[in-house]
Amino acid sequence: MLELYQKESCPYSRKVRARLSELGLSWVAHSTEEGSRSSEVLEKLSGSHQVPFLVDAERGVMMAESDAIVEYLNEHYASGRS
Q: For residue range 14-35, what is the model confidence (pLDDT) as tens digits?
């Protein structure tokens, strides 16, 4: 399962959400607004509050940085690749 820790107003999060949607992937969004439970989980996973942050549990991958996430999605999920 793909999980995206993100903020609705963040343009970098928006970029990743758009690519996930374009690829037709199933994913779960976790809003990390200050003081939220998801914000606490994000800090435990990544050591920071930086968004977007992708967790691909199936592949055991956790990563930040929108460009890197989009590249990862393209490499592993675009064009019928798995």
A: 999 999 999 999 999 999 998 8
**3-state DSSP assignment of residue 32:** coil
Q: What does DSSP assign to residue 78?
A: G
Q: How far is the C-alpha of 57 from the C-alpha of 59, rounded, in Å?
A: 5
CATH of 2-80, one of 3.40.30.10, 3.40.50.80, 3.40.720.10, 1.25.10.10: 3.40.30.10
Three-state DSSP at 21 gives: helix
pTM of the model: 0.92
Q: Where are the beta strands (DSSP E) in the chain?
A: 2-6, 27-31, 53-56, 61-64
